[in-house]
Amino acid sequence: QLSTLRKKLVHLDLKGAPPRVEYLHKLIDLFSKLGVDGLLVEYEDMFPYEGELKLLQATTQHAYSREELLSIQEFAKSKGMEVIPLVQTFGHMEFVLKHRPMWNLREVPYCVGTLNPHKDEGVRLVMEMLRQVVKLHPGLNTLHIGADEVYVLGEGEESKKWLASPGRTVEQLFLSHVTKVAKAIKKAWPHMTIVMWDDMMRDMSQDVLKASGLVGLIQPMLWEYTPNLDVDKTVSLLEKYCSAGMSDLWVASSFKGSTSVYTCVPCTQRHVDNHLQWLKVAASLSSAINLQGIAITGWQRYDHLSVLCELMPVALPSLAACVETLNHGQFSSEAQSKVNEKLGPTLTSSGDSLFPGRRLAESIVELNSLLNSDDIRLFENDMFVRGWFSPYHRRRKMVTPLITMQIHSQASAFLTTVQQKVEAVREEMVRFYPDSTAQEWIEEHVSPVVSPLQRITEDIRACVKEMVP
C-alpha cells in the first residue's frame, strides 16, 4: 500500500504565484501536521542565481534571497521534512532559454523550452545551475533533474545531422544527454541520489533502457494525474523499468494544477480519485520494485509561459484529502474527519488559525462562482441586449433610451458587485503573495469577464448622448 511508502513529498511549484516567506512557513507547518515527509521544490526563476546566471532571476517580483532559502530549509528540517530541489535540465527550460543570451542553446528557435543536447555549453549551463542550487542546500542528498516533455527533440539542425548516422534514434539522443548530466552530477557529488520524470522513457523498450547507461544512475518518477488512471498500464510500466534494472522508483500524483491550464478552484474529488488509483497501483506491484515514495504535485503553471493554475489556499482542502486518502488507504469517514480536524470542517467555518489563507480561499471561491454565473457570462445574450442594443444598433447609434438605460443599470450593478469582491480578493491575496501575482490573477480571471460589460456601459452612454436632448 502507498500508506507504507517511505516518503510523501509535497511539490511546491514556484514558477508562478511564489508565496511570501512567512506564508511558506505556515504552509510547511500545515504539511508537517498532515504527515508529509518532504518538499519537492521547483524554484525556476525564484532561485537567487548569481554571477553569469543572475539574469535567470525573476523580474516581476524579487527572487527569494539566500537567507530566505536557508530559513525555509531550516524550518522544514525543524519539522522533520527534507527539501529536494527540482531543476529542469533538458525540457521545460523556458525560464532560461527565453533570455536572449541563451537563444543559441535552444534545440529549435521556436521552442523556448528544449535545450540543444549537442552543445557542451548547454551541459555547462545546466551544471552551473545545479552547482549553485546544491551549494545553497547544505547536506543535500537527493536532486530531481526534471527531463519531462522534451518537445521537438531531434528537429534541430545539429540533431538532424546526428540522427542521419545509421542506427541512431531520438530515444538515444534523449538518453545520451540525460546520462551525460547524471554522470557529471555523480562526479561532482558521488553521494547524490538523482530522480527524473519518466515520460520520455515510457515508449522505450527494456533493452534500450538497459543499454542507455542510466541504470544505477537515476530513479525514474512516474507521473499520472488523471482521476481514471489506467492501473494495469501503469503497473506494467513500473515493472518494465524494474526489469530494465531500475528497481528504485517513485510515483507522482496531483492535488492541484492538473485539471485545465486555467482552473481557478480545484475539484477535490477528482484529485482524491487520482490517489485512490495510485493506491491500487501500489497494491499490485511485485516485491522486486522498491517504491521510494510519492510526490503529490501542485502545479502553479503548466509551464513558465502559461497562465496561473489554482492558488495554494484554495487547494489545501484537496491536499489534505489526498494525504489522508494515502494515510488511510481510502477516503473513508475517518479520513474525512482527520481533514476536518486539521483544517476545520469546511471552507466557510470561521478562523484562520488551522488553515493558513482560509479567508483568501473563501473570497476566491465566492468571486469565481459570481464570474461563472450565467447572468454575467451570458449578459450579451440577454433578450433586451440582443433585442434593443445589438451590434447593429450600436453602429448606427439608434437606440431606445428607456430600455438601454435599464441595460446600463443592470450591467453597472454587476460591475459594482464584481469590483467589491475583486477588492476583497486583492486585499487578502497581497498578504500571501507578491502584488504582481494579485495583478496577474485579476487580469487572468476577472478582466476577460468584465470587459464586455464595461464596453456595453460605455457604448450605451455614447448612444444615449446622441438620442436624448
Automatic annotation (TrEMBL):
Annotated keywords: Hydrolase
Any Pfam family the entry gives: Glyco_hydro_20
Its EC number(s): 3.2.1.52
Reactions accelerated catalytically: Hydrolysis of terminal non-reducing N-acetyl-D-hexosamine residues in N-acetyl-beta-D-hexosaminides
Highest taxon of the lineage: Eukaryota
Sequence ranges assigned to domain Glycoside hydrolase family 20 catalytic in this UniProt record: 59-205
Keyword Hydrolase (UniProt): yes
Gene Ontology terms for molecular function: beta-N-acetylhexosaminidase activity
Keyword Kinase included in the entry's annotation: no
One Gene Ontology term from the biological process aspect of the record: carbohydrate metabolic process
Family: Belongs to the glycosyl hydrolase 20 family.
PANTHER family in UniProt: BCDNA.GH04120, HEXOSAMINIDASE D
Protein name according to UniProt: beta-N-acetylhexosaminidase
Lineage: Eukaryota, Metazoa, Chordata, Craniata, Vertebrata
